[in-house]
Amino acid sequence: MVSIDEVARRAGVSTATVSRALSGRGHVSDATRERVETAAKSLGYVVSSSASSLASGRTRNIGVLVPFLDRWFFSTVLSGTASALMRRGYDITLYNLTADREQRRSIFETFLRRQRVDGVIAISIELGDEETERLRELGLPVIAIGGPNPRLSTLTVDDVAVARLATEHLIALGHRDIAHIGASPEFDIDFHIPTRRRLGFEQALADAGIPARPSLFEPADFTIEGGFRAAKQLLGRPGERPTAIFAASDEMAIGALLAARELGYRVPEDLSVVGIDGHELGEFFRLTTVDQFPLGQGERAADAILDELEAKDAGTSREEPRHLPYELIVRGTTARLEH
Amino acid sequence: MVSIDEVARRAGVSTATVSRALSGRGHVSDATRERVETAAKSLGYVVSSSASSLASGRTRNIGVLVPFLDRWFFSTVLSGTASALMRRGYDITLYNLTADREQRRSIFETFLRRQRVDGVIAISIELGDEETERLRELGLPVIAIGGPNPRLSTLTVDDVAVARLATEHLIALGHRDIAHIGASPEFDIDFHIPTRRRLGFEQALADAGIPARPSLFEPADFTIEGGFRAAKQLLGRPGERPTAIFAASDEMAIGALLAARELGYRVPEDLSVVGIDGHELGEFFRLTTVDQFPLGQGERAADAILDELEAKDAGTSREEPRHLPYELIVRGTTARLEH
DNA sequence: GCGGCGCATGCAAGCGCTTGCAGTATTCTG
DNA sequence: CAGAATACTGCAAGCGCTTGCATGCGCCGC
After folding, report:
1. Looking at the complex, does the CB of residue B3 fall below 8 Å from at least one CB of chain A?
2. Cis previous bond, B185, omega within 30
């Protein structure tokens, strides 16, 4: 690997000047900069990240914490993060936080402490108190996407409002017997968001003067299969059958769609279904949903953390937690209730 | 952040001894090692990756190249890789290789040359000649999963055999009018594998003395929606209707399933469908498939590269390219052809 | 009893950069 | 036109580790 000395020699300057010319820190005349750049390019020189990090304390690398790699939502957010970071020249180091206590600990106590990253993005991870503390101890900028964590800068969508929006859409279409598929009240710590969605659902009903009926709630695990089973329960039960289902995720909504089909219900004539997320399959299933633009979420988180890093560098103060956009996308799975 | 000096002071030894005790390189008496470990733990010391990398040339970090982050297959492989690497104390730096020429170039010419990684895993990426060359120039161990690349160590499943297996399963069930949904012959460079799958399909037919009929081939893009459209074509066409469909991916197979349902065909009574991959939704759809255990592929790649790294360290010679396992999983979407 | 060997440890020289400080050259200000 | 400010560049001291070499010591074999 070619080193900075070779570039310096070739350009006829000191290594200090090469460093300054290439990093853009400090003054270098245009002529010199050009000579240095030419030399660097012709030699194929790329600064060694470890040497540079050691000397400067900057790594040009961001750590990303994800709970699941193989679920659409998370990998989509990650994808957005990755492309935004790479656009700005940053590398991305991935930490897959599973439920395994021991493994989680080692991430917080070892992996993240290797001084390999300049900042951390936590994607939809409900962190324990101690984990949050470990994260703060790192002394690095941290941005969390998802569940609002008062002790960290967060980028969140207002999940209560999102759920209200979806529910109000159904109410506006004349539905009153609206079922909800969401997380059961006593769920994993990785899910705080579902609770807020259920809350929004209940608020919307209450505002419309519709009493909440426990029989119209069915818990599921946020997968297609979970949604399928839940919908079968809701639709197969004797007595009060819902005319609409609000699922707390698109995947569950799709499951509900398939269940309805299998039971012979026509969607949206016999049953309206709305989800949340903006899943890639939504279009295919003509699913009405509240899109939360996960790709954009990832990009925003990346930009936010890099801005913070640069602001820190420049001494500027950092921004306040931002709210993420969402939008009702009406497609073919919801319709006015026919009497 | 606490440094090695503090640990050395606390343990009453030199920094050299701390380094040796903690890294396990060189001789340290048990008593000393224990004292060092206690000191390190009580101070919360973790070696600085940049300092360590700079001094030793080892980064404890593996670069992973992925074409798509948000497609099930790739994120599943990645997930396997991530967990295996983290188990062995390695970090993982993610490079999302898009189709964007310019961006790809910068990955090969800049990002990967920062000396941030000890090795590279390329997940199902068809690399251009120049890209392969850039990769080799790094002088690092490289493991490619997927499309066999004679210039790199690869871990591949025999896609021809996989496709034969799926097709032979249909033939054994009495099917002769078997359609194939796969990649069109002139596809992106990221897909070599589909071609091999088509080949296996054709071989199996030929071996059984069944003439290939172009009308029973339909190209698609490996998504559910693509499979859906392709199946609609195949099933909606006048004349020769297939009694079975072999899709080159589970996602396309699922699309085909949905299309068949929509057209009123019963699966498997009227139509058998088989896919490839072992998709997580396969179970839900009762899909017969040839599982290629993507999670395991990721783990194997990780283990292979770490083994190679350690072998290099120890001077042992490295292993030959390995073949990945696959298995026909018969579920509910294939059945004997009734006359 | 002595040379030789291997283990345990320390010394100190880097690894390849960045950056504070200092020295010059150049430009600006009044 | 003097004095000050500013732009450009180089020197060299690290950044926090790792590791080759040297040292000291106890033990072995003959």
Report:
1. no
2. no
